[in-house]
From TrEMBL:
<dbReference type="InterPro" id="IPR018657">
    <property type="entry name" value="LarA-like_N"/>
</dbReference>
<dbReference type="InterPro" id="IPR047926">
    <property type="entry name" value="Ni_dep_LarA"/>
</dbReference>
<protein>
    <submittedName>
        <fullName>Nickel-dependent lactate racemase</fullName>
    </submittedName>
</protein>
<feature type="domain" description="LarA-like N-terminal">
    <location>
        <begin position="8"/>
        <end position="206"/>
    </location>
</feature>
<feature type="domain" description="Lactate racemase C-terminal">
    <location>
        <begin position="282"/>
        <end position="420"/>
    </location>
</feature>
<dbReference type="InterPro" id="IPR048520">
    <property type="entry name" value="LarA_C"/>
</dbReference>
<dbReference type="GO" id="GO:0050043">
    <property type="term" value="F:lactate racemase activity"/>
</dbReference>
<dbReference type="Pfam" id="PF21113">
    <property type="entry name" value="LarA_C"/>
</dbReference>
<dbReference type="Pfam" id="PF09861">
    <property type="entry name" value="Lar_N"/>
</dbReference>
<dbReference type="InterPro" id="IPR048068">
    <property type="entry name" value="LarA-like"/>
</dbReference>
Length: 430
């Protein structure tokens, strides 16, 4: 018997799997070279990809907009790398008064002053203020043109009035865009609501019942219209410089890329694959997954990536046991709750998503589609009645979940364990 611990909220749970059934533990890969976070940031800024150094690209008297993530992505340790970026701008002759920070909220809520301070860190908060992008404020948007996907691109006016736009953020797998970071800081980051929703709606096939396009998935770029439309939108903006971090399995800044927003992001995607992309030779009958604990499993909405990543390692019709505390219940907005609570079949849910498409609807749909194609059992504090219409079973322990699986499917099941499934993406090699 193989005994392991997986994170659950702020605590841990034990998992026991017969060794002859355990195919493997899907964990992030370790980097061969270990550097301090400060060294990683410094090396990236001093060795940009496809670009001169930032301090050489800007000039005295010019105005620079630095686009930063919102507080939901504070795990990227923005307070560490923004200091280095400001130092680089100052070295290029840019005075503080000519540096503008805009938080790329996309369609997220406005932030508090305390959240702004968390993003900038103590030192920068004394020197700068943060402007929250508002995708619904049409007076503060400027129209730039239309992509080949028919998407009318509206971008934050303050950003476009600056001489330079520097985009920052982190690269992780993303179920819509393939990868976060890079172009995603522009769209949805500082785009108008119309532009955001049109882009995200490209994820669905043309006909009802055909669900999500095959290329729209974590790690998907080549045949992913959401990703490609984002790239086109960013081409109207032409960011001067990009800085993105890649996080390690322990939450540290493991790597960073800087320079041209396309070339540097492509290099960052390769680094991410080397860390969080894990090759598997076969799919399992059962995957036991954890998001990696709080705050990644704070609610079901935030936990969707755990389910969509875990499904990549299990056969269709197989079982996913997901240890997700969900101390705040379903999470998300009214659309999410409507889709999960008030529908009992996947076709009606798809109709609901297509009618006035929103990202929150889509994410909730992805969760329900996973529970439609696989048998999902949550080890969770969430109430059973909240997810019963989504065909999800809730229990209190991993042992109880395994009891259900063994009763329905038998005990000799090929099994993977995914301790950090919110970040780790299994990739079938055959």
């Amino acid at each position: 018997m193989k005994n392991m611990e997986i994170k659950y909220g702020s605590t841990c749970m034990s998992v026991a799997v017969e060794e002859e059934n355990l195919i493997g533990v899907i964990e992030a890969n370790k980097l061969s070279e270990e550097k301090t976070e400060e060294e990683v940031i410094k090396d990236a800024l001093e060795n940009p990809i496809g670009s001169a150094r930032l301090k050489e690209l800007v000039h005295d008297g010019e105005r620079v907009c630095v686009v930063i993530p919102d507080v939901t992505r504070a795990w990227q340790k923005t307070d560490k790398y923004l200091n280095a970026i400001v130092e680089e701008l100052n070295a290029g002759g840019i005075e503080d008064k000519n540096i503008v920070f805009i938080s790329a909220l996309g369609s997220h809520r406005k932030q508090t002053r305390e959240e702004h301070e968390k993003l900038l860190g103590e030192k920068l908060s004394e020197r700068f203020k943060v402007i929250d992008h508002d995708c619904y404020d049409k007076e503060n948007l400027v129209y730039l043109g239309e992509t080949t996907y028919g998407n009318r691109v509206y971008i934050n006016r303050i950003a476009m009035e600056c001489d330079h736009i520097v985009i920052t953020g982190g690269i992780v797998y993303h179920l819509l865009a393939g990868y976060a970071g890079g172009k995603k800081t522009i769209l949805p980051g500082i785009s108008g609501a119309e532009t955001i929703m049109k882009n995200h709606s490209l994820s669905l096939n043309d006909n009802l019942g055909e669900s999500v396009k095959a290329g729209v998935c974590s790690g998907g770029t080549e045949d992913n219209p959401v990703h490609l439309d984002m790239l086109e939108a960013a081409s109207f903006v032409k960011p001067t410089f990009m800085f993105n971090v890649i996080m390690g399995p322990e939450g540290q800044i493991a790597a960073a890329v800087a320079g041209n927003y396309i070339a540097a992001h492509e290099q960052g995607m390769k680094i991410l694959k080397n860390i969080d992309g894990v090759d598997i030779e076969e799919k399992a009958d059962l995957v036991i997954a954890s998001a990696g604990g709080y705050p990644k499993d704070i609610n079901l909405y935030q936990s969707v990536k755990t389910l969509t990543n875990a499904r990549e390692a299990v056969k269709e019709g197989g079982y996913i046991i997901a240890a997700l505390e969900c101390r705040e219940g379903l999470g998300g907005d009214k659309n999410i709750q409507d889709l999960i609570l008030n529908y009992d079949n996947i076709l009606d849910r798809e109709k609901f998503v297509r009618d006035d498409f929103t990202i929150s609807k889509f994410i909730a749909y992805c969760m329900c589609e996973t529970a439609y194609k696989f048998k999902v059992i949550l080890v969770s504090d969430i109430k059973q009645e909240l997810v019963k219409n989504a065909n999800i079973t809730v229990v209190k322990t991993v042992e109880k979940a395994l009891e259900i699986v063994h009763k329905e499917k038998g005990e000799n099941l090929k099994t993977y364990v995914m301790p950090h499934a919110a970040n780790t993406l299994p990739m079938l090699t055959k």
